[in-house]
C-alpha cells in the first residue's frame, strides 16, 4: 500500500513544484518589468535624436543649396548687367558721347565691385542672403539688364538702317549720274564715229555720190544699235530669258561670246525696218504717195527737209505725213502686243500709236529716231535715180569680203561660214554696200 501511494505523491509533488516555480518566475518577471521598460525607452530616444539630427542636417543642406542658387543668380545677374553696360559703352563710342561713356564705365565698375564682394563673402563663409528675396531681386536685375541690352541693340540696328538708307540714296544718285554720263558718252561716240548730220545741210543733188549714202547708213545703224540696247535693257528689267528670245529670232545660232547675242536683236530690228526698202513707197499703200513723189529730185528734197528735224516733234506736227504712217506701221510690226505688255505691263503706247498719236516715252523716242534714219536712208537711196535693192546672205554661205563685213572684230580666217545676216546689204545701180553678217564660231579639229 505504501508502494501504491508513492507514485501519486510523486506526481502531486511535481505539480506543486511546477506551480511554485511558475509563480516564482512570474514574480521575478514582474519585479524586473521596470528595468526592461527602461532599456526600451533608451533605444527609442536614441532613434528620435538621430532623426532630429538628420532632419536638421537635411534642412541645412536645403538652405545651403538655396543660398548657393541665390548666389549664382546674383552672380549671373551681375554679369548680364556688365554686358549691358559694355554694350552701352560701345554704343557711346560712335557717335562719341562722353557722358554716356562715363555712366556706362561707372556701371561696369559698380557691378565688378559687387561681384568681388560676393566672392569675398563666399570664401569667408559669411554669406548672409535671403534666398527667396535674393532670387527675386536677381531676376529683376537680369531682366532689366536684358531689356537695356535689347534697347541698345534696337538703337544700333536703327542707326545701321539709317546709314544703309543714306548709302542707298547715295548709290542711286551715283547710278543716275553714271547713266547720264553713259548717255553722253554714247552720244559723243555716235557723233565721233560718223559725220555730223550738218554735213548734209549744204549738200546739193549734183554733188551726191555713194559715199554720202554709206556715211548716212552709219548714222542709221548707230540709231538702230542705240534702240536695240534700250530694248535689251527693258527685256532684262522684265526678267526675259534672252537666250530663248534669241532662239526665236535666229534658231540654231551659236555665239562665241554671250555679249554677241545683241547681234541677233540688231538683225531682227534692222530687217524689220528695212523690209520694203527696194520699193519707192517703202511698203506703204500706193495711194499714200503721189506719183510725183517717186522722182529722184523729190526724194532728195524730202531728205533735205527731214534730215535736221526732231523725229518726235515732226510726228506730232505732221500726223498725216508719209513718215508718220511709216513709223506707225513699223512700230506695230516690230513691237507686237505681247512684247509691249510684257515689257511695260500695258498696251498704252500701242494704243497711242494706233490712234495716230506720239507716246511720251524714251523707248518710243529711240524707236522714232531709228525709224527716221531708215526713212531718210531710203529717200537718199532713191535720190540717185538708179535701181535700188537690198540683199541678205543665206545661213551657211562662205564669207566674201566683197559683199560682206563681219560685225565682230575677230580676224576672219579658215574660210568661215555665215551664221546670219545682221544688216542687209544695198545695191544702188552698180554700187554695192556690204551687208553685215555674224560668222559661225570657228571649231578646230581635235588635236589642233
TrEMBL record:
Domain called DUF641: residue spans: 64-188
Domain GIL1/IRKI C-terminal, first and last residues per copy: 390-438
Pfam families: DUF641, GIL1_IRKI_C
Keyword Disulfide bond: no
GO biological process: negative gravitropism; response to red or far red light
Keywords: Coiled coil
Coiled coil: 140-174
Signal peptide range in chain numbering: none
Name of the protein described by the UniProt record: Uncharacterized protein
Species whose genome carries this gene: Pyrus ussuriensis x Pyrus communis
